[in-house]
Amino acid sequence: MAASASGGLEGRVALVTGSTDGIGLAVARSLAAQGSAVMLNGFGEPEAIRALCDELATAHGVEVAHAPADLRREEDAAALVPHVLERFGRLDVVVNNAGTQHKGPVEEHPPQRWREVFALNLDAAFHTIRTALPGMRARGWGRIVNVASVYGLAGGVDRSSYVASKHALVGLTKAVALETASTPITCNAVCPGDVSTRIFYRNAKLLAESEGISRAEAQQRIAATNMPSGRVVAPEHVAALVAFLCSEAAGEIRGAALPVDGAWLAR
Ligand code: NAD
Fold it and tell me: Candidates 49, 121, 147, 197: which one to mutate for ligand 1, based on the most atoms within 8 Å of Cβ?
């Protein structure tokens, strides 16, 4: 497979973790639309995942496969990139997107859940990066994008493990960007505000239940509380930024943590 000289991603291979749903799926779609083959990852019904692979492959004329790794498990996380290399023969783009959160005060945070949040939000990215970099260095090109959060750049109440793990992910991004700074490999983070995916709808449901309001009102209230724009961010907005970071034009954006947050962090 020849790599592209056009600035698109034709001939490239991308791994997007947590991409059977939400932001990851939007990212997978946008990278496939740029011509990249894609390894999906994440949970779901086998039939639905097969249909998703077929749909993406047909829509964009690229190869699409799925790796069922549970990235909370160290052995799965460590084996994911070798699996992609075995399937596609190369790996050019890694998007560390799979993530989870636990809501509640720090003194009530179950330690086991703390380890799970860190395993998925931080350790999995460490494993994909450390196993993908040697091949990227050998081929002389690579793009690593870590999906952090506004909570990677600012604090928040009742989400200590999420805030801590996303800050650490931003730190890992900077460290890897420095280690690759003199190469054609870049590493950056994107930091979304409230995005209209499962986590957002779950938070809105919790707010609706605790306040006795409708889910629609809760969604509007969350968006307006956190984001001066008053609107929730679409997964496609995040995906477009990730695709740009994977382009040739973004080759000197290194170690950045870029908000997509309706001006949340501008206050
Ligand atoms: P989502 O819940 O909609 O989708 C998560 C995806 O990850 C799914 O494909 C799921 O199957 C997969 N997944 C879950 N656990 C996994 C595991 N253990 N191993 C492998 N895959 C797993 O999530 P989302 O809302 O799209 O969030 C994606 C990322 O964006 C997360 O890192 C999240 O922290 C971050 N983020 C989300 C929002 C938001 O408002 N939704 C805001 C800021 C940052």
Answer: 197
Phi first, then psi: give them for residue 12, nearest 5 degrees. -85, 165
Same domain, 238 and 218: no
What tens digit of pLDDT does each residue of 117-160 get? 999 999 999 999 999 999 999 999 999 999 999 999 999 999 99
Does residue 170 fall inside a structural domain? Answer: yes
Residue 58 maps to a domain? yes
Model-level pTM?
0.94
Q: What percent of the chain has pLDDT above 90? A: 91
**Residue 258 Cα to ligand 1 middle (Å):** 18
Rg of the chain over CA atoms, in angstroms?
18
Mean pLDDT for all residues in the chain? 95
**Tokens 């995040």 appear where?**
238
Residue 2 lies in a domain: no
Side by side, the strands of the sheet bearing 93-96 are 64-67, 37-41, 13-16, 93-96, 142-147, 185-192, 257-260
Regarding whether 239 and 207 lie in a shared domain, the answer is no
